[in-house]
Amino acid sequence: MPSSILPDSLLSYRFLSHLAANASGTAAAFVVRRPDRRRDGYVSALHLFDGTAERRVLSHLASPLYAWEDDTHLLAHLTAPTRRGGASAVTELYRVDLSGGGRELAVTLPVPLEEFNVLADGQLLCSALLAPSDLDQLFNGAPQKNAVAERPSANGYARFEGIPFYADGRGFLHNRTRRLFLFNRRQGTATPISPQDFIVEAYAADRAGRAVYFCGQRDSGVRKISDTLWRYDLKDGALERLYHGNLDIRRIYPLGDAAIIAATDRAAYGHGQSDDFFLLRGGQLRPLAQPGFMTHNTVSSDCRLTSGVPREVEYNGRIYFPAVRGYQSHLFSLGADGSLEDHLTFAGSIDALARLNDRWVAIGLRDLLRQEIYALDGVAPANANATARSGGEALPQTVRLTHLNAGGVRGERAVVPAHLNFACGSPDGARQTVDGWVLPPADGEAGKKYPAILTIHGGPRAVYGAVFSHEMQYWAHHGYYVLYCNPRGSDGKDDAFADIRGGFGDDDYQDILRFVDLALQAHPGIDAARIGVTGSSYGGFMTNWIVCHTDRFRAAAAQNSISNWVSLAGTSDIGYHFIPDQTGARPLLPNVEKAWAQSPLRYAGNIRTPLLFLHSEHDYRCPPEQAYQLFTALKLGGQETRFILFNNESHELSRNGRPKNRIARLRTLTEWFDAHLKESA
């Protein structure tokens, strides 16, 4: 009998990220992180892959920060022996000789870096969150002491001068903003690139080492969504403003003597509107292509630690990037002539991309396996033929190249999901398809009835797909059917399908209930009287909304949820701009009733379903006050409820929280559903 997948099976998983090839494309490095029970964290190692074999070259990284210096050397953020296991604000970068020459300390920077790149002349292009008090120390002779100034919070208070004043995963900002600077290793000096009062949102350097492009906005006290685009000349240090307007610039792709900009004006579909592409050449910005869909990965999974936004790769004068169509990643490319090509359908999620030995390789999730590296063979050149332009179904051959996650649960057997879909309308009148899946119990018997858990993704502009989910597989091995779908509001289709602004809890709610009905028809083993519902973030909102509007679910669990859009506008790190846009209450203050009408708290008196709240103490995206409010209302109303608060965790608890808390979260959820849905309940 195959072993069951358990909550602590997580400890045997490996998480891959930060794939990058050297300049000649003969080798690629990537980071492998594994959970460490004793340290209650993740141990990072750097691996090298030559296209056929992989090997570990560094066992302990302080963070996933590394960059290629040349074909045989890289700089990496190593854990110094005297500091192993501890935190340090100093960033020490070691030069590593991959041909066997060892390692040596190359750079010590007195600030914690967010990212760095090695430029063509050997200088480092660095980004870091810096406060005004940090700047003089950093940019005056590279001091040896720690340049992170004492924060007001160390004296028992914090001072805010702008919004947002905190950010999820970073905590209180203390007036720190992202700055770009150059570090000259020979001279030991740092030179600022971005102006002191400028907040950098995105940046990129061209491969020839001529210029750095960056975008963002002046620090006016209220962080804006529209951006200014700048070019910094690496030869003479000249700073040139290239664009100032209403575009929200999300990514910059240098391409020869030009740059491609992914941006949106948000005019038709608000903050969730897909990117358009613009060509920047000779200081002029002109429209290039309008894909009509999100140009990054949005496949949800609890088996990756980083976000689903892989770096783009330039090859033969084109930018290659993954994007989701339906519920799978596709490999696209874009040329400076505006031609957009769909080269390959990857039956899962492309999490990182590189060009290695004239072959595309990717970190991916597919075939109900956890992350591995795959070769994407058979990718036709741009404009090769109609098959490539229509998705390349006849061309690609995806080959698994690594087996880093093969040593998981002994005898593990993943349950295969059954795909279901139905047609629905969208605001533009087009017929679209809602996709969903049902995982049956791993050892279910024909003719028997089993409980089910409906789980709802966050976003809402994200997708579920047929990829491995630890949480879902555990529930299937624990005797549950698991139901999940992509209702309206999800990604994978067009902007009209994803647009539920001003109507949260309307079309999306109806799609979810319709999917449950469809699952019950297709799988008679589901006991309709024993179904639970759960979800996180937007999924937590929908869980709250569902139990406010129907009693068909036996139990519910709202994770990092939303109950009151009005208060969330003032407490979320993105609330002041995101909530008015999404609820249609723009501006918020004269239109509070519209946001309140979409708030589950307004309907709390209707709830009769036992409701568990799980929340992260340091969730600054959907702060705990959202759950406190609804929990209090239910207690005052005499309803069955419980609150579990996970200390020192962010909004990302289920994806990259500390291993002990991730395991405890899954056990807590399951115990709640067992108590209400199992036959003994």
TrEMBL record:
This is Peptidase S9 prolyl oligopeptidase catalytic domain-containing protein. The lineage of its organism: Bacteria, Pseudomonadati, Pseudomonadota, Gammaproteobacteria, Enterobacterales. Keywords: Hydrolase. The keyword RNA-binding does not apply. Residues 468-679 form the Peptidase S9 prolyl oligopeptidase catalytic domain. GO terms for biological process: proteolysis. InterPro entries: AB_hydrolase_fold, Peptidase_S9_cat. Pfam families: Peptidase_S9 (PF00326). GO terms for molecular function: serine-type endopeptidase activity. It comes from the Bacteria.
